Amino acid sequence: MNTKQTPDEKRRLEKVINKSYDVIEKSDYISRDLSWLKFDERVLDQARDVRRNIFDRLKFLAITASNLDEFFTIRVGSLYNYIDYGKERTDYSGLRELPFKKTLMAATQSFVTETQRLYKEDLFPEFLGNGFRVIGLNDLNHEEMEQVLDYFNRTIYPMLTPMVFDHTHTFPSLLGKTLIFGVVTKSEGERTESNINESRKISFVQIPQNLKRFYVVEREDEIMFLPIEEIIRHEIWKLYKNVEIESVALFRITRNGDFDLVEHEDSETDFIDEIKKKIKDRRLGRVTRIEMEGGCSEWMLQMMLKRWKLEKNDIFFSDTLIDFTAFWQIIKHAELKSKQVAQRASVPALGQLTQKPENIFETMKQGDILLHHPYNNFEPVLQLLEQAAEDPQVLAIKITLYRISKHSRIAEALLHAAENGKHVSVLFEVKARFDEENNIREALRLQKAGCFVIYGIPGLKTHTKLLQVIRNEGDMVKSYAHLSSGNYNEDTAKLYTDIGLLTTDEVLTRDISEFFNVITGHSQPHSYQRLITAPRDMRKSLVKMIQHEADNARAGLPSGICFKINSLQDKITIDELYKASQAGVKIQLIVRGICCLRPQRKGLSENITVRSIVGDFLEHTRIYYFHNNGDPKVYGGSADVMVRSFDRRIESLFEIYGTQVKQQAIHILDWNLKDNVNAYTMQEDGSFIQCASPAECGDETFNIHKKFFEVNATEVMEARLFQEEEMIEEALGTEV
């Protein structure tokens, strides 16, 4: 088998792809996986942007690589779960498993080719002018080479372990997302054409993951980054003394990390053990991709494809660095050297809230406060927990945790509260993907300190973000709450845009108390007044509000819908949005990532527009707006419009009710629709077009990732959506 495609094979593949795209074009829905790739293309655009400095451009290139790792681990892994076990699946695009995989791999190959071109032709040439280089061994002088060889002998060499595969040794268990050398060696003695393959052996040398990717050489006028694989390649002969090395090739594999848990309701220990087992299984899951440098041994590659049941289009050849996530080391080194880790100062939240409130409880009593991170500091949330841990009047703290930071002030405050005799209840979701080990470790630490810890709910992921503090205030017991779209993680709060509501509203806090009883016990409330929860009634409630807007439009009343979310995938909700569009409802969707809805299709979705914001911060805010005949209903929360959010997760959306906080949420949507720097418009075919530059249109630059740091109360209170006659374009001055 030749791993290089023949002309006939190329023609056959092109025929399959062309036929697939004909099917895709006719579908009323966009493929979730193809939409994911489109999002990664928008991230790659940030690396193309010459207005950014070289380190920002490298950062976005590294993010695309990290995204692609997750894509092959989860999405392609999920696809293989169907292919390997003969299960049927029809993608939203209308394609069955195998033609869809061919189409998906072709699109991914094109994307990877462009990332490599961008690095080689656009970014790499800029390194020298910015005081650094990625080098080879030939760029070192004699003294530097001696230091490198000493580093190899002292540090690297003792860690390397060649693992041979032949008729007496089983194929080794190679780690995913790890750089590996495949080494083909020849045994001594005479060889003929008939026995040449029998004389060959393959062995694998994994580069230890706890070694930094680059060896750094600092000169007076520049910093040089030497890939560690080049050091090992130069010295690999030391592992194969008295053996002839035929070829050495670097590669990297990705494994399937998509798994389901068999959960046992009657045994917490079994549940944790099952998660630990699945984490181990993930490390040895089926291979979904090979990244391989060019010029590798054809014989070795054939063996790997056969072993891992892969096809030629599952190999991604590289003539440059493998694994662009390595650039994080260069970025962090540059930040340390220049000390340019400057974080913009957050603006104070509207209302009475300062950056570090002296008494958060007294401040919250004055009215609801909507925080918009990172523009508003995350400190008030931390202060609520830290003051609650110390306050003798505080009786209890309840919180849901999904992902926390490595050195979490949240966890420390909860530990301290338990030590001070507070009743602390923590619903710690240990099934949060890729954070399972850290969450289990932290949950056990909290449990040992005396916190009442619940390890998630069998069959569901707890994704909702809720915090409640119960305080005895003499003549009454008062509840203080925080509800959020983002995690209780002070690190990501600086990088992700999210909203959080601090409230003492009795109606909402009563709902929260009921909801905690549901998710920590067996309570079944009759109804909530200001919460919408999943899996109980979220899809049904959103559909009902969409239908209400459609009814208003048919009756000639003002109507409008605006969602700001991360992902839109649930077919039932998409179909209702289509119907509302056909009824005349103007629908503005701001969807950061996956969008399976097809906008602007004649007779289907002519009144729906979709835009995506991709820039300095990861857009993570979820806001749902319904015009409601001039009395807007506005919700924030943790849930996207996805099947998993509605059916397989515990989620919540909270009504943003007070006049000021509702106006703030409307203002966030308003400015998201005005952005002309970070915004992309989705086309009917699923592609995205970047908004024309303000300079080209003669417009003023409107970059929300900067503007929100400068917002004032007047701008917030003047923002409007869907005014009766003007609707979106005139009301916002925005043409999409």
Characterization of this structure:
This protein is of the alpha/beta class. Helix content is 39%, strand content 20%. The strands form four sheets. Strands 14, 18, 19, 20, 21, 23, 24, 25, 26 and 27 form a ten-stranded mixed beta sheet that branches. Strands 10, 11, 12, 13, 15, 16, 17 and 22 form an eight-stranded mixed beta sheet that branches. It has a six-stranded mixed beta sheet with strand order 2-4-3-7-8-9. Strand 15 (466-472) and strand 16 (477-484) form a beta hairpin. The longest helix has 30 residues, at 54-83. GO terms for molecular function: polyphosphate kinase activity. Mg(2+) binds at residues 403, 433. Residues 144-330 form the Polyphosphate kinase middle domain.
Question: Which descriptors would you attach to this protein?
Answer:
eight-stranded mixed sheet, 20% strand, single chain, alpha/beta, 736 residues, globular, disordered C terminus
Q: Overall pLDDT, averaged? A: 90
Structural class: alpha/beta
* Parts with pLDDT < 50 across at least 5 consecutive residues: 724-736
| DSSP summary: helix tally | 23
Total beta strands? 27
Shape: globular
Helical content class: 25-40%
Strand content: 15-25%
Amino- and carboxy-terminal Cα gap: 51 Å
Largest sheet: 10 strands, mixed
The rounded Rg comes to 28 Å
Function: Catalyzes the reversible transfer of the terminal phosphate of ATP to form a long-chain polyphosphate (polyP).
Family: Belongs to the polyphosphate kinase 1 (PPK1) family.
EC number: 2.7.4.1
Protein name: Polyphosphate kinase
